[in-house]
């Protein structure tokens, strides 16, 4: 028994299996083209999407014992937001667009969720390597039996026998498709029969056999197809992550511009309320002095009430925009900072010398950089691999096998003294059985063939794989058409918003001049208060229009960067 325990522990230390290759790295980022839309700022942040491989310790190692038998800590701890206090200045959270996007990538919960989506395809790679993992099985049993004898040849009136068989088997599949199985059998039999030559009798045998496919499942490439497919699918997931990350950054930056817009509109409405208040006070004085009819007071009062309503609405919209921005950088999770006022340093104004956009150049850039298109192209590689896998299963199963075995016996034996006729025990043990190895040998070879006369299932699987590739090609063409349309539409929207900003600025200048002129005309008594209030309202509307068009231009710049696919490069976000 002691030898069996030692042998079993030794068998746990098995040869090293196939080394696992590291997952494919993400493709390197390319530099943005000179024809890219104008950039307002960038957040220089690195996103580490290369996550370490999950632990798969070898049996018998210390890590294996801890992971298998000790209670694992499944507590999930989520880190809080970081670097927020670095941007607190004089009791205010001061953010430029660059710093804001920096905090978004570092703290945004939705981005953290998307980064974890790489875990599943990463685990799939290791799972694909699992077919090459070695397997050790062993068994031991002990059976004691007492049976009444029915013949004197059984050597005892009541036959008492103890059988103790042990078996250990090691199996492993190698990359060329070769499967090797090694089996060790040992048995110890003790009995009270006086006719047994060995008592206890120790028998042992060792055999090794292999099977090598010659057609189906033959070769390293075929047997590693699941690994190659898993790696390709991980690349698909990386492109999907990049596309989702772009959308999240667009949402985050739009939240920044929403707050900028709300604050600009607040200034406009405060100015409108100030003008309405001045007009109301002047009308009240005129009524008090009798310079005008009391009926003329209702228009200034209604105008002032409307300005108050508009200002109140903008204040609540401003609060909503601030709360949305706090969520983007997870300020709402920090009780010490979430109540601090927010100061945005980015100016929504645009320069007037923006270069013209080259539509074909931007479309070409989108065809090279759009992550959703790159994902479909990578899916074509997956389709090709699946077709090769289906073609492999169409082949007949022709295999070559071989087996070698040897055996030995040992134990305490008995011999008869030729003089006295007494049985003389001769000491022996398991080493005698092992010593007979390679003296008694058995060799065998075999060839097996499994030839389906009609394999409808494999043919259907191949047809499905081909159809899947055709669908992917058509989806690629459809997406390319959509990308061209998206880029051209984004360019038109950007050009339209650029022209709208210029026209809104001109309209504001005219509205300001008209309001100033009407104020002078009203002071001279040429026009009534009705015309003055109308020009002031038009001035407020022109100011609001300019604010909306300016912020809309920023959004359209962002939209074009997303449609072209270089948004991460422009913002300085690098996936590694």
Strand content: 15-25%
Put simply, the count of helices is 14
Question: What is the helix content?
Answer: 40-55%
| Low-pLDDT segments, ≥5 res | 1-52
Q: What value does the Rg take, in angstroms? A: 42 Å
Count of distinct strands: 13
Assembly of the depicted chains: single chain
Order of helices and strands: HEHEEHHHEEEEEHHHEHHEEHEHHHE
Give a short summary of the structure.
The protein has helices at residues 2-11, 62-69, 97-107, 109-115, 119-129, 220-223, 225-289, 298-328, 359-369, 371-394, 430-435, 456-523, 529-564, 567-571; strands at residues 45-47, 88-89, 92-95, 135-140, 143-148, 158-173, 179-191, 198-213, 342-344, 397-416, 423-426, 441-450, 573-575.
What structural keywords apply?
576 residues; alpha+beta; three-stranded mixed beta sheet; 13 strands
Can you describe what's shown?
This protein is α+β, with helices and mostly antiparallel strands. It contains 14 helices and 13 strands. The strands form three sheets. Strands 4, 5, 6, 7, 8, 10, 11 and 12 form an eight-stranded antiparallel β-sheet that branches. Helix 4 (109-115) runs antiparallel to helix 7 (225-289), helix 7 (225-289) runs antiparallel to helix 8 and helix 10 packs antiparallel against helix 12. The radius of gyration is 42 Å and the shape is elongated. The two termini are 55 Å apart. The relative contact order is 0.14. Mean pLDDT is 84; it is low at 1-52.
